[in-house]
């Protein structure tokens, strides 16, 4: 397939063209470097402290790097199909990898607090359900992006599939946030020994979980609106929107989760009572009937 399958006169705004602006070289370089720096920091932390559950998160960071490298290439080859597809697909699906690790964190926090009985979903199923949904959302979005790159005639169908994948991601994340809120309300009403420990900062980490979830939700909503308006929409025609509602939001996410890394909480587990010990201590703290 030739790039000319996509290209139409620039003044025909109802036609598909790669970019309705000149891709910024400076912005692409800045975010490629920033994502590379923070992702490298996450990688070093994961190797040092063996936080394997953060592997998908690091993969997401690598996808962001590749995406902005693709935009760098697009600056020099604006009408080249390869760089355009690279940045489109990698930037689109990167947050799905971030989400996978975020889902795993909630399950570990619940176990850390000995609060399995307060979870809406059995903990052994919680991570599996959300990650499976996230993986499905990833394939839907990636598949839609692949179809959209098949030519102008397939672009509209590809966009519809991408929107479906993004909407699925929003629904999954919304249910995830509800599950986290319900768990927090229940464990605050019926605290465990682990959740009552003054050294534990689990509320701080749950708040961070809500924050990064909100960042992904906001980014996904803006992306849905972008794709719903098509290739001639206002959002896709203004590069600043990509950097405000995708690049900055996702960079903020990876920075926040490095500064307040979940491992700061989970590493305390060896210092706190075991699950069996916690339950025994809870019984001692309960008033005699």
Task: Please tell me about this protein's structure.
By secondary structure, the protein is mainly alpha-helical. It has one domain (22-189, 200-268): Rhopdopsin 7-helix transmembrane proteins (Up-down Bundle), CATH 1.20.1070. The protein has helices at 25-49, 55-76, 81-112, 123-148, 152-189, 193-196, 202-228, 239-259, 263-266, 275-285. α3 runs antiparallel to α7 (202-228). It is elongated, with a radius of gyration of 22 Å. 38% of the residues are buried.
Q: What is the count of structural domains? A: 1
- How many helices does DSSP assign? 10
Quaternary organisation of the protein chains: single chain
β-strand percent reads under 5%
Structural class: mainly alpha
What is the chain-wise order of helices and strands? HHHHHHHHHH
**Could you name the CATH class?**
Mainly Alpha
User: What integer is the average pLDDT?
Assistant: 87
Q: Major β-sheet, in short?
A: none
Number of strands: 0
CATH topology: Rhopdopsin 7-helix transmembrane proteins
**What overall geometry do the principal axes of the alpha carbons give?**
elongated
How much helicity do the residues have?
over 70%
Distance between the termini: 78 Å
What's the architecture, going by CATH? Answer: Up-down Bundle
Poorly predicted parts: 1-14, 272-289
Radius of gyration: 22 Å
